[in-house]
TrEMBL record:
It comes from Arthrospiribacter ruber. Belongs to the ABC transporter superfamily. Macrolide exporter (TC 3.A.1.122) family. Residues 4-233 form the ABC transporter domain. This is ABC transporter ATP-binding protein. GO terms for molecular function: ATP binding; ATP hydrolysis activity; transmembrane transporter activity. The keyword Translocase applies. CDD domains: ABC_MJ0796_LolCDE_FtsE. Keywords: ATP-binding, Nucleotide-binding, Translocase, Transport. InterPro entries: AAA+_ATPase, ABC_transporter-like_ATP-bd, ABC_transporter-like_CS, MacB-like_ATP-bd. It comes from the Bacteria. GO terms for cellular component: membrane protein complex.
């Protein structure tokens, strides 16, 4: 079942009289439960495509269908609503609130979703437990290792039970061993049926994904299934 479909999407940034065609024409279908890596050189359009898929931005032209809804021309408020419901974001720099506990960080998206305090704490605890941090809920981010911080961020991405997990360079700030641990967790999430899209520069990280889409100059250069993805330990 299709969860994402972009039809000839284009994105042009205007800066004064200059135009940058960040996406020239991208048509791509991603089904529910797929695990996809976006690769490509700096400036090839990966962030732009992720921003559009994540409903942080809209295409200049073309159509984007997310979960059977055409989101190409939605207003900022409509996009925000879709984002909260459908997308879990994981970032290279974790983006956690430093003064808040792990539990509070993970519970944050549930405030916007309108859940009461008890339910927020229950769901946040469950999400933290599912990433192996059930015993760290009252710690602050600076009391945790990089890998543990990324786990908190992943728990926050999962807490709303999103349709898609979008991860932009999720291992970019982690050492090799910790990166593989995080990929192990992504592997488990994929096994559980989650749809995962990640951007990475690293071949060995991309090798965990089941499909690799390479962008170049705002176009899809190659889109290949990985016959033998890394399955971890
Ligand atoms: P990466 O290559 O790690 O994906 P970039 O350095 O290309 O990241 O971009 C980082 C952020 O800066 C992105 O959110 C992107 O939209 C924005 N950005 C990139 N290039 C420009 C630019 N020329 N002007 C303004 N913002 C930009
Ligand atoms: P990547 O993530 O692959 O590095 P980006 O999507 O960040 O690529 O950038 C694609 C192109 O669009 C680059 O030429 C970049 O400089 C430009 N760009 C990205 N974001 C902006 C922006 N906000 N304003 C102007 N140009 C941008």
């Amino acid at each position: 079942k299709k969860i994402i479909e972009t039809k000839d999407i284009q994105k042009t940034y205007r800066m004064g009289s200059e135009e940058v065609r960040a996406l020239k024409s991208v048509s791509i279908v991603i089904n529910k439960g797929e695990y996809v890596a976006f690769m490509g050189p700096s400036g090839s359009g990966k962030s732009t495509l992720m921003n559009i898929i994540g409903c942080l931005d809209t295409p200049t032209a073309g159509t984007y269908i997310l979960n059977e809804k055409d989101v190409s021309d939605m207003s900022e408020n409509e996009l925000a609503e879709i984002r909260n419901k459908e997308i879990g974001f994981v970032f290279q720099t974790f983006n956690l609130l430093p003064r808040a506990s792990c539990l509070e960080n993970v519970a944050l998206p549930l405030i916007y979703a309108g859940f009461g305090k008890t339910e927020r704490e229950e769901k946040a605890f469950k999400a933290l437990d599912s990433v192996g941090l059930g015993d760290r809920v009252h710690h602050k981010p600076n009391e945790l290792s990089g890998g543990q911080r990324q786990r908190v961020a992943i728990a926050r991405a999962l807490v709303n039970d999103p349709s898609i997990i979008l991860a932009d360079e999720p291992t970019g700030n982690l050492d090799t061993k910790t990166s593989y641990d995080i990929m192990e967790l992504f592997h488990e999430l994929h096994q559980k049926g989650n749809t995962i899209i990640m951007v990475t520069h690293e071949d060995d990280i991309a090798h965990y994904a089941h499909r690799v889409v390479r962008l170049r100059d705002g176009l899809v250069e190659t889109d290949t299934l990985n016959p033998n993805p890394t399955r971890g330990k």
